[in-house]
Structure formats: C-alpha cells, structure tokens
Design goal:
Protein name: Methanogenesis marker 2 protein
Order of helices and strands: HHHHEEHEHEEEEEHEHEHEEHEEEH
InterPro entries: Methan_mark_2, PurM-like_C_dom, PurM-like_C_sf, PurM-like_N, PurM-like_N_sf, ThiL-like, UCP036540_AIR
CATH class of the largest domain: Alpha Beta
CATH topology of the largest domain: Phosphoribosyl-aminoimidazole Synthetase, Chain A, domain 2
Radius of gyration: 19 Å
Number of domains: 2
Largest sheet: 7 strands, mixed
Shape: globular
GO molecular function: thiamine-phosphate kinase activity
Low-confidence stretches: none
Organism: Methermicoccus shengliensis
CATH architecture of the largest domain: Alpha-Beta Complex
Number of helices: 11
Strand content: 25-35%
C-alpha cells in the first residue's frame, strides 16, 4: 500500500460523518459540566461509554443513553432493534451488566411507532434486557427514538476510556460472522441470526476481561469506526497510537478502506499490557470474536495508520479535537 493510498484512508477517517458528528460535544458538555461536578464531587468524566455513578455497595451504577440517527428512522423496525443493541454495547464496553432500559418515542404515525416497538421487543428478546418504561409523543411532525439504559459493574472491575497507558498494545475484536447492514454500507449486522445465548457469550467477554484486570482501557467500536473510536480513547487518555492496518480482523467481502469506517454490531477496541495480550485474545476468541493486536499506544498525542514501513498521521490531538473530553482534565 502506497503513501498516497494511506493518505486517502486517513482523510476518509478524518472527514467521515460518523466521526465529525461527535465534534459538537466539545462545545455542548462544558455548558453543564461545572454544575454536575459540584453535585457529584468530581466524579463527572463524560467521555466514557456510560457514566459511572457511585453507590454505597460493591457496584457502580452505569447510566447511558443513545439517540437513533435520523437516517435510520426510515426503517423503524431496525431503529427499534438498534436502539437496544447500541445501549447494551455501551454497558458491555464498561465491563458491566445491563439491567433495564427506558425509551422516548416520537411519531404521529401509528404504523411507525408500532414497528419501532416490535424492533425493541426483538432487541429485548435477543439481548435479555427489559424495557421498563418511557414516553410516547403521538403527535409530532417527525419520527425519533432515544433509549437510556441502566447497568452495573463491580467496583474495581470497570473498563474506562481515559485510563490507557503508554506502551500498551491495542487489540481489536469483532464478530465477523455477519453481513453488511441493510440500511448503510458502513454497518455490519451480526446479531439477528444468533441466539440470545450466543449473543450473551460475546458480551460477557468484556466483563470477564474487567474482572481479570487485563485491560487498561476500552470502548465499543461505534459510529466513528475503528480508528475514530480508538482516537477518542486516545484523546480521553492524553495519548496517541499507531495502528497497523494489515493486522485488523475484517470480513473477506469488505474492503479495508471501508471496514475502518464501519460500525459493527459487536466490536471492541481495548488496550492491555504486551504481556497480557495473549490472555486478552484468548478471552475474545473463546467468545467467538476475531481478535488481533493491531497497534500500540505512545506518549506522542498523535494517531497514525501504518502499513509496512509507510505511516500517515490521522489526528494530531495536541491541536485537533474529536469530543474535547480529556479524562485527566475532567477529574481535576
């Protein structure tokens, strides 16, 4: 792969809408962060996949929410199903156990919210997490859906995104047993054909990794794609990374240049000590995921993609921002 080809891939990652849609977060969060920090005594870092809420017991509560992209609302059944999937992913990425969800649905078309509800019902069945309440706006001129989820994680076993260490290796893990999604060439659907037991086994692996303390940080691969999601982790941790593209697990039918932008149904990017990498790979592979060491973290706050001896910078996090959320700063 030539330097020009690498640069084209790097530019596609920088300008990908799944990533650029994250950038307004840097202006939105500061509007309420100060007041939240005062109430929660500093435990207010908002760059994780789910918020950690302290309790008096042995668990942190995990709280997350996702709004479904308006483009997906043209397929309301998929919107409903996906609203469950993405929320369960957020809890799993933290090493947690999902407990319950609520929703907010808006549509003046009974056929739309009926299909949303049917998609949600299938998601509840597949992922084993109940929908316990919500709110329906039956008279809006638009269709929308948002879901919030509650989970828990044992204290000391949580997987954060702002705690990565320089020198750690980066591992990517995917469920490759699937197909390109029905609504976007940048999605990978791999859960509808699996049993609830198979799905639970895949998500359980992150809890196992957290309880065995094998990871320094982690996230689920989401709308920004693999490199974009890793760059968010690097921004949170104040680090950079180099990704070896040839090491990324990918399905035969998808080109690498597209795969790095894909939002998979089940995919994680994590960091671990080099000496623990083999154990991490075994946990992922034992759950049915394809996993590989794809790079390394470093103190230089720049993210590179590489193939062989060629290397191109994707982000300079000393001067560029994705979400603007940096863990070390948020905890001060």
């Amino acid at each position: 792969m030539s330097g020009d080809e690498l640069e084209r891939i790097a530019n596609s990652i920088r300008t990908f809408e799944g990533l650029t849609r994250k950038q307004p977060i840097s202006k939105f969060v500061p509007l309420f962060l100060k007041e939240s920090k005062e109430l929660l005594r500093g435990n207010t870092y908002l760059g994780d996949d789910a918020a950690l809420l302290d309790t008096d017991g042995e668990y942190y509560m995990l709280f997350a929410a996702d709004g479904i992209w308006s483009r997906l609302m043209t397929s309301p059944w998929w919107a409903g199903y996906s609203s469950v999937l993405v929320n369960v992913n957020d809890i799993a990425a933290m090493g947690g156990e999902p407990l319950a969800m609520v929703n907010v649905v808006a549509s003046s078309h009974g056929g739309v919210w009926e299909q949303i509800a049917k998609g949600i019902a299938e998601g509840v069945r597949k992922f084993g997490v109940p929908m316990v309440g919500g709110h329906l706006h039956p008279d809006t001129p638009y269709d929308s859906l948002a879901v919030a989820i509650l989970g828990r994680v044992r204290k000391g076993c949580e997987i954060r995104s702002d705690t990565a260490r320089a020198g750690d290796v980066v591992v990517a893990a995917y469920d490759l047993d699937g197909r390109v999604g029905p609504n976007s060439p940048y999605s990978w659907e791999s859960t509808t054909t699996k049993s609830p037991r198979e799905i639970a086994r895949m998500y359980e692996c992150m809890r196992v990794l957290g309880e065995r303390h094998l990871l320094s940080a982690g996230k689920d691969v989401s709308n920004p794609g693999l490199v974009g999601t890793l760059s968010m982790l690097c921004e949170s941790s104040g680090l950079g990374a180099t990704v070896q593209l040839e090491n990324i697990p990918l399905p035969e039918e998808v080109a690498l240049s597209r795969w790095v932008l894909v939002h998979p149904a089940t995919g994680f990017v994590v960091s671990t000590r080099p000496e623990d990498a083999r154990d991490v790979l075994e946990v992922f592979e034992g759950a049915g995921l394809a996993a590989a060491v794809i790079g390394q973290l470093h103190t230089e706050r720049k993210v590179y993609i590489a193939r062989g001896d060629e290397r191109v910078m994707v982000f300079d996090l000393t001067s560029e921002s994705i979400t603007g959320l940096v863990g070390g700063e948020e905890h001060k």
